[in-house]
Amino acid sequence: MGCSRNCGLLAGAIIGAVLAVFGGALIPLGDHLINKKIREQDVIENGTIAYENWVVPGSPVYRQFWLYDVQNPDEVMNNGSRPVLKEIGPYTYRVRYLPKENITHHPDNTVSYMLPNVAHFEPDMSVGPENDTVTCLNLAVVAAPALYTNSFVQILLNTWIKSSKSFMLQTRSVKEILWGYEDPFLKKVPFPVKHQIGVFYPYNGTSDGLYRVFSGKDDISKTAIIQSYKNKSTLSIWKNHCDMVNGTDGASFPPFIKKSQILRFFSSDICRSIYGTYESEQIVKEIPMYRFIVPRAAFASPQESPENSCFCTENVVSKNCTASGALDISACKEGKPVYITLPHFLYASEDVSKHVEGLSPNKDEHETFLDIEPTTGFTLRFAKKLQINLLVKPAPKIDALSKVKESYIFPVLWLNETAIIDDEKAAMFRSKVISPVKLLNLLQVLLITVGCVIFLAFFISYCICRANNSGDKGQPL
């Protein structure tokens, strides 16, 4: 009888141990199954989840614009006073809602495509209509001396600027400033130039690319990484590593993201590749995410971040490469003196920010971030923020700019391109990706916990029973 009971307790302990071991064995087995499924679905080819979300963005993408309205235009133009700026916005447009064009699959497991540019005004998400007016820089007048440095040509430019009644500042509608208008000064120029000008002119009806990216079919770690942009792997703008087209387009990354990684992505808007570093864990519509931010170091001066030295192109703003926070992209804007910063000069040095008033940089409001689901590498929420500025230089031979005392960059507007996965896509993502992983993890924990409890309960009972049996045998009759 004692043997039978002891054997039963021992058998129960063994069963518990087997359950615990099986639960432990599910960890590598489950990881293998998950990895296999993700590898199948993360490849950019017809029939995969990745391809479905890649062809058309899985969530609406919006661009919000805040334009800087000059509060003291007469003092700026007549006395060279510091501009006092007030942001007006947002004016919101839906972008990136058309599918990629000219998609071509190549034998080397790459895919090429074009990104159509389109912007649709969203009045319900804006502070006012597109015909709201703003007093801002005259784009053509300010760019003229940067494009034509010859003194004689500048005298001619001055004649045409004056005859067109153009000045350093102008009042235009939001729509004109963003998407283009016919400039009266440019119409006076007797040789062939485009009369249309705008911060994003031309945009609607144009395309960005040609992009060529790895599909990930032969190497999942290269999924969505750009092989070439406009048939080149470099931009021919910067020097050394700064000129390389690195990473993805930011919409997705290769799967199995780790917090220790540096995620690189290319942005044609700023004519360079940039990177993000891990900041925190986030929950987006019940989906666990890793937040990666573009760190301060990405815009720091070469003194602080030596790898940025090849982005330093001139000394007017960079102060012999000691100033931080401003990127001269004139080389990819047909020579126009365009500078990119973060909104409100976030992370910029005083040499950059001291020339204007009214800005209030705030990390939470003005920082770029990407929230990425780490298993698949999909970006399910992001906010890409940047500010567009023009370099204003003294030009004694041009009356409209004769009061400018020193060169400085003048903010025109800042934008936030943002998206978040919609409810339908989030539900699909939870059911196909998150739920199976959670279920497998729960099963692993349950088996290990139940197995350990059963093993300990039966084993302890067995030991107690053995001890009692031994005590009974040792007592005299």
Using the alpha-carbon principal axes, give the shape.
elongated
Helix share, percent = 25-40%
Mean pLDDT: 86
Structural class: alpha+beta
| Major pleated sheet | 11 strands, antiparallel
Q: What gap, in angstroms, lies between the N and C termini?
A: 20 Å
What is the succession of H and E elements? HHEHEEEEEHHEHEHEEEEEEEEHHEEEH
Number of helices in the DSSP assignment: 10
Unreliable stretches: none
Strand content: 25-35%
Q: Please tally the β strands and state the result.
A: 19
Q: What is the radius of gyration?
A: 31 Å
General description of the model:
The chain has 477 residues and is of the alpha+beta class. The chain has a domain at 61-96 and 119-204 and 234-420. Helices cover 31% and strands 26% of the residues. The chain has 10 helices and 19 strands. It has helices at 2-41, 49-55, 73-79, 139-147, 151-163, 174-179, 184-188, 350-353, 363-366, 423-474, and strands spanning 61-70, 85-95, 101-106, 110-116, 119-121, 133-137, 169-173, 181-182, 196-197, 207-214, 226-229, 262-267, 272-284, 287-293, 327-328, 338-341, 369-372, 379-392, 408-420.
Question: How would you sum up this structure in a few lines?
Answer:
The protein is of the alpha+beta class and 477 residues long. It has helices at 2-41, 49-55, 73-79, 139-147, 151-163, 174-179, 184-188, 350-353, 363-366, 423-474, and strands at residues 61-70, 85-95, 101-106, 110-116, 119-121, 133-137, 169-173, 181-182, 196-197, 207-214, 226-229, 262-267, 272-284, 287-293, 327-328, 338-341, 369-372, 379-392, 408-420.
